[in-house]
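[audit] Reproducing an earlier prediction to check determinism. Same input, same settings, fresh worker. If the tokens differ from the archived copy the diff job will pick it up downstream; this log only records the rerun itself.
[audit] input (85 residues):
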Amino acid sequence: MEYQIGQVVYSKSGHDKGDVQMITAVEGEYLFLVDGKRRKLEKPKRKKKMHVQPTTYIVESVAEKLQQGNSVLDAEIKKALKKYQ
């Protein structure tokens, strides 16, 4: 499965197991994940692709802002992910 910026994923391992997170960047086999609470945009979690459960959900509004380099607030991410918990 191809991972995209703005895609919602669930963590399968680690201390954040079961948490819902959003992809902010994809680099090789690593994803950079944020949740707006513990993991903010300033310091995303770097996680291997095999350690997350992908979903088909993509938050278009946040994805567009991230891809264009516009500012995104942690509150926007938190609000968008609230639906998927």
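[audit] rerun output stored. Observation attached for the diff report: The CA atoms of residues 1 and 34 lie 20 Å apart.
[audit] end
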